[in-house]
Specification:
mainly alpha, Alpha-lytic protease prodomain-like, disordered N terminus, elongated, single chain, 2 domains, Alpha-Beta Plaits
């Protein structure tokens, strides 16, 4: 369903505010991490900066994707959002691996940590992460691009909770090891989310069949139609997250109804049974003398 102009503008404003508050939070967390000596707080700050960057990328891609199709991009610019999602998921993976490395090094060489400062700044971060999540949640349900940025934010909110718990443990028990341990948990969650979601964007950019679409079933449904002998050169791919396209050569028998009637029935099957509205179908007749053991001969 197309968004109204008002909905689009509201969404843009929400993302703009989310970027602004996350940039401000990043500086506060970095300063607090340096002053307190907390690696997990700095880790949370780095990930929070990636939140701001991912939201910025999502914002730019969202605007580019609304450009109309032209002679250079005949399918339009909707895949700009898929590219942005891939960039954001890749960034999450890099950040997760970096945090694993830093946590292991901190286990080897522990450093003193100011627990109260960690708790207060992480608490502030959790509030801002929650506000950001509320701003973008509704859009994340219908956009892979915004969903990637939203997952950045959720990972950061969980990281803030972990940092609060870690800071409290340091205050109460003096457990310095809890700081890199929580950093490892944050990194593990980041990597799990990124690897789980990145496949969808790669699939679209590699022109794979859409998720949940059975290419074999589509081909069989077309071949069951009266007048269809075989389906060849069959290709199905995602134009963007919401639209799929089919290209096929359909070998047909001679018919009194003619090509337009068969094309109409094929497109009805694609549209009503499989939700595919864009198709390029070439009908190719069987030669009359083609009934031999090698199958139908087309011309």
């Amino acid at each position: 369903m197309a968004q109204s102009h008002g909905d689009v503008d509201t969404g843009d404003r929400r993302i703009g505010w989310a970027v602004a508050v996350n940039v401000a939070l990043t500086f506060a967390q970095i300063a607090g991490g340096i002053l307190s000596g907390s690696l997990s707080l700095i880790a949370d700050a780095i990930h929070n900066f990636s939140d701001a960057a991912s939201l910025g990328i999502a914002f730019v891609a969202r605007r580019i994707s609304r450009r109309p199709a032209d002679d250079r991009m005949t399918f339009g610019y909707a895949r700009a959002e898929i590219v942005a999602a891939l960039i954001n998921y890749t960034t999450l993976i890099v950040i997760g691996l970096y945090l694993v490395y830093e946590a292991v090094m901190r286990f080897i060489t522990p450093e003193p940590i100011e627990g109260w400062l960690v708790v207060w700044i992480a608490g502030l971060a959790l509030v801002i992460d929650t506000v950001t999540a509320v701003l973008v949640y509704s859009m994340s349900r219908s956009s892979m691009n915004i969903r990637a940025a939203f997952l950045h934010n959720i990972a950061d909110a969980l990281g803030s909770i972990g940092v609060i718990l870690g800071g409290t443990a340091i205050i109460v028990f003096g457990w310095l090891w809890i700081d890199p341990a929580i950093t490892l948990m944050i990194a593990g969650y980041i990597l799990w989310q990124a690897f789980r979601e990145i496949g969808g964007s790669i699939r679209i950019l590699m022109q794979g069949a859409p998720e949940g679409v059975d290419a074999t079933q589509i081909r069989n449904d077309i071949e069951r139609l009266d007048g269809v002998v075989a389906v060849t050169h069959f290709h199905i791919w995602s134009i963007d997250e919401d639209h799929a396209s089919v290209e096929a050569h359909v070998v047909r028998t001679p018919s009194k109804d003619g090509d337009p009637a068969l094309l109409s029935r094929i497109r009805k099957v694609l549209r009503e049974q499989h939700g595919i509205g864009h198709s390029t179908i070439e009908l190719r007749p069987v030669e009359p003398a083609a009934a031999d053991e090698n199958g139908p001969r087309i011309r």
